[in-house]
Specification:
15 helices, alpha/beta, 8-stranded mixed sheet, 6-stranded parallel sheet
């Protein structure tokens, strides 16, 4: 049966990187026979500016590969100031609640891509006005990720935290079902009173059109000046939660290992600070590369011998699987993780690389040295293990089927 699914997400294509996953989810549902309508804003990620070809108007409908995309105005911002982030999130929540009513009245079920958590507000409104059941797909656990981000000063943090707990509790109560992207999230929600029967663990999968094992392009590596015997790469957002200062400090500790080069590919709010840190220590083993076209991402990853996954040392991130973890597994890349909790468990269980406690630069440097000292055969085993772990535990086939089944079950609860 064709399920008419109303997807509500703050982010959507053509936004890429960390904001690209909602589009991957929508395409997976469409491939399984869902009629997908998407309620979103105008694309701004990661620079906080409206993309060329779009105008920040009250409403625009776009047909994208057989999906109806309903866009509403947003306050464009992705900087580190709390008031601007709040305006961005709440503008989507408010306008999206109106935009959602532009979709056909006879929808069967809603799906909320919950990052940020305010994306649930349009679903809560449509549930009240049209009795549409919804499934929450929780990517970031609020208020934990908000308080961990460092955006709020201490005077406001307690008040905001209490308000967000009440809001999230209401969103959970009204949801027909809750899917979470990491096992630790399920445990935390249960501890907060959400019944276990209402929670399913559905890890994210990678965009399999773009993440797959590739051969290294030697000429491109030379062009990027990363043709050392061991190239370690971080590719993604330079944000506060990524804690890339630990990588720069590890590079300082490895400055005498001339066989190791660290490539940081991307941009973000901490880029200026990271460049200054590297320049201060005259780190010639660190390369900063600009963001690369998403359609070339597997070719870029293949320029490295292993990928770095780093997170800040805060409790909420112990219950998180950053999307780049699955992407790197899908690309068959060994992983060196400065992570703990669920993310560390995935790397260790897959025998796909090395882990170090988050924020511990000497331990990260030792992990880097351990990898650099491995034989070619040992590195190849890590590559094979990465890809096998992805196919068995995180692939679109495995997780997409489970998500579609959850939505069908939620739709049947409407009665």
């Amino acid at each position: 049966m064709t399920l008419k699914t109303l997807m509500m997400t703050h982010w959507f294509e053509p936004e890429g990187g960390a904001a690209g996953h909602p589009g991957i989810v929508a395409r997976s549902l469409k491939a399984r026979g869902h009629e997908v309508h998407v309620v979103t804003g105008f694309p701004t990620y990661p620079k906080g500016e409206i993309f060329d070809g779009y105008r920040n108007s009250l409403y625009q409908r776009e047909d994208l590969d057989g999906m109806a995309v309903h866009r509403g105005a947003v306050y464009p911002s992705h900087d580190s100031r709390a008031i601007h982030r709040a305006a961005n999130y709440l503008s989507y929540a408010a306008v999206g609640s109106l935009t959602a009513h532009r979709a056909p009245k006879k929808m069967d079920v809603g799906l909320v891509y919950s990052s940020p958590a305010t994306a649930a507000i349009p679903a809560m409104v449509v549930r009240a006005t049209r009795r549409l059941p919804y499934v929450l797909y929780v990517q970031d656990l609020w208020p934990d990720s908000v308080t961990a981000s460092g955006f709020l000063d201490e005077a406001k943090q307690g008040l905001v935290e209490r308000a967000l707990h009440r809001f999230c509790g209401a969103a959970y109560d009204r949801a027909a079902h809750i899917a979470v992207s990491a096992p630790g999230m399920a445990r935390l929600l249960h501890d907060r009173g959400v019944p276990s029967r209402k929670i399913s663990v559905l890890p994210n999968w990678a965009d399999e059109r773009h993440f797959e094992p590739r051969e290294r392009d030697i000429d491109q590596a030379r062009a990027f000046d990363i043709s050392a015997p061991t190239v370690l790469m971080y590719a993604g957002n330079f944000g506060e939660l990524q804690n890339l200062e630990t990588v720069i400090e590890a590079a300082r500790l490895l400055r005498d290992r001339h066989d190791i080069v660290i490539a940081l590919v991307g941009s973000g709010v901490t880029e200026t600070r990271l460049r200054a840190q590297a320049e201060q220590h005259d780190l010639r083993n660190v390369r900063f590369l600009p963001p690369q076209p998403f359609e070339r991402i597997s070719d870029v990853l293949a320029l490295a011998d292993a990928q770095l996954v780093t997170l800040k040392d805060v409790p909420v991130l112990r219950s998180t699987l950053p999307s780049k973890l699955q992407a790197n597994l899908a690309a068959g890349q060994p992983i060196i993780g400065s992570v703990s909790g669920d993310a560390a468990a995935v790397i260790e269980d897959a025998a796909a690389g090395f882990t170090a406690p988050p924020g511990d630069a000497p331990a990260l440097a030792n992990a880097m040295k351990s990898f650099a000292d491995m034989s070619s055969d040992a590195r190849n085993r890590l590559r094979t293990n990465s890809r096998i772990a992805y196919e068995q535990n995180f692939s679109e086939k495995v997780i997409g089927d489970e998500l579609s089944a959850l939505l069908h079950k939620a739709a049947s609860s409407r009665g």
